[in-house]
Design goal:
The chain is built from twelve helices and eight strands. The protein is mainly alpha-helical. The strands form three sheets. It has a three-stranded antiparallel beta sheet, with no helix packed on it. Strands 4-5-6 form a three-stranded antiparallel beta sheet. Strands 7-8 form a two-stranded antiparallel ribbon. Strand 4 (about 175) and strand 5 form a beta hairpin. Helix 1 crosses helix 4. The radius of gyration is 28 Å and the shape is globular. Residues about 315-320 have low confidence and may be disordered.
Length: about 325
C-alpha cells in the first residue's frame, strides 16, 4: 500500500490479495492514515509473530468492513458491526473474540505510532466455559488399541507428557535426552512463547525406546517425514471403533492434566509441567481433584449433625432370659 498526491488530494494505491490493484481517492488534502495502511505496517513489524496464519485470516474477514476506512472512521459502532457481521455468518464467540483481538492489535499499534488519537473499544463477547473432555484409563486403553501403530505411539506419548499435537508431530531427537529422562520444547514451538522442560516418566521413556531407529531426525515419523496433524481420519475412525464420542486429539492433553489433578499433583506444578502461561489456564481442572478437600469438609460433621434412626425410634431393650 502507498499514499500519493494528485494535486492537493491524497490517493491510495493498494494491491489486493488476488493480485489486482486498487486506486482510490481519500477525498482530502490531509494525510489521514487508512486501515489498510496500518495493516501493512503492522504486518511488516510482526512477521515472526506466532499464530500469524490465524491473524491474517481474521484481518481478511475484517477487510470488507474496514478496508475503505481511515483510522479515525473506525468507531465503537464500527467495532460493534464487526461483531454482528461475524455472528451473522455463524462464527462462534471464541472466534469473534479472536477477530476483535486481531483488529485491536492493529488499532493499538496505530495509536502508539501517533496515527490514531484513541483506539475504539472492543465489544463484550461472552464465551461460554467449555466442558473439559477427558478419558478414563479404560477408555484410553480402548482408544490406543484401535489406533494404527504410528498414531498409538503418539497418543501414548501425549498421554504421558501432555504435549500438544504439533509438539508431538514435530518432535526431533535433538530435543530428547533419554539417558537424563528429559525433553524440551523450544520457545518458538511453544504456545505461550516460552521453552518447556519436560521430565519423562517411565511410560514416555518406553515409547521413545520403541521409536529409536525409525528415523534419524523425527521421533514420530510417518512415511519418512513429520506428520502435519495427528487428529486425522485414521484417528477419527479409531474413535468410532472404540465407541468414544465428542473427543479431539487435543483432549489427550486434557486427559493428561485431569489424571494429574486426580492423582494429587498441585496446580502450580501442573502449570509448569504443561507450559501454561498463567495459573488461570490450569484452574479449569481444579474440580477434578476435590478429594483433597475431604479432610476440611469432615471438620464440621460432628456428632450433632449426624442423624440416625436412634434419633426418632424408641430404644429397644433386648430380652434376657
Amino acid at each position: 500500500m502507498s499514499l500519493y498526491k494528485r494535486g492537493s488530494v491524497w490517493w491510495i494505491r493498494f494491491t489486493k490479495p488476488n493480485g489486482g490493484e486498487l486506486r482510490e481517492t481519500t477525498q482530502t488534502a490531509d494525510r489521514r492514515h487508512t486501515w489498510q495502511e496500518a495493516v501493512v505496517r503492522w504486518l511488516e513489524e510482526h512477521q515472526d509473530r506466532r499464530g500469524m496464519p490465524s491473524v491474517l485470516s481474521h484481518l481478511r474477514h475484517a477487510d470488507p468492513l474496514l478496508g475503505d476506512l481511515t483510522l479515525d472512521q473506525i468507531t465503537n459502532d464500527i467495532m460493534a458491526k464487526l461483531v454482528r457481521d461475524r455472528r451473522a455468518v455463524g462464527a462462534k464467540p471464541g472466534t469473534i473474540k479472536e477477530a476483535q483481538s486481531a483488529v485491536r492489535a492493529v488499532l493499538n499499534a496505530a495509536q502508539r505510532w501517533g496515527w490514531l488519537a484513541v483506539a475504539p473499544k472492543a465489544q463484550p463477547v461472552a464465551v461460554p466455559e467449555r466442558r473439559i473432555r477427558w478419558l478414563t484409563r479404560e477408555e484410553a486403553d480402548r482408544l490406543v488399541a484401535e489406533l494404527p501403530d504410528y498414531l498409538a505411539a503418539m497418543a501414548r506419548f501425549a498421554l504421558a507428557t501432555g504435549l500438544r499435537d504439533q509438539n508431538v508431530c514435530k518432535l526431533e531427537w535433538n530435543q530428547v535426552d533419554v539417558a537424563r529422562r528429559v525433553a524440551w520444547i523450544h520457545a518458538d514451538q511453544a504456545k505461550a512463547g516460552k521453552p518447556i522442560h519436560i521430565p519423562l516418566n517411565a511410560a514416555a521413556i518406553l515409547v521413545l525406546r520403541e521409536q529409536q531407529g525409525k528415523h534419524p531426525r523425527w521421533v514420530f515419523p510417518f512415511d519418512g517425514r513429520a506428520m502435519h496433524h495427528a487428529g486425522n481420519a485414521a484417528f477419527r475412525s479409531a474413535l468410532k471403533r472404540a465407541r468414544i464420542e465428542n473427543f479431539r486429539w487435543h483432549d489427550l492433553r486434557h486427559t493428561w492434566a485431569s489424571w494429574h489433578v486426580q492423582a494429587g499433583t498441585p496446580l502450580p506444578v501442573l502449570k509448569e509441567l504443561g507450559g501454561w502461561a498463567t495459573l488461570d489456564m490450569v484452574l479449569r481442572y481444579a474440580h477434578l481433584g476435590a478429594t483433597h478437600l475431604a479432610e476440611y469438609a469432615e471438620r464440621i460433621s460432628g456428632p450433632r449433625l449426624v442423624r440416625t434412626n436412634l434419633d426418632t425410634a424408641p430404644a429397644k431393650v433386648a430380652a434376657t432370659g
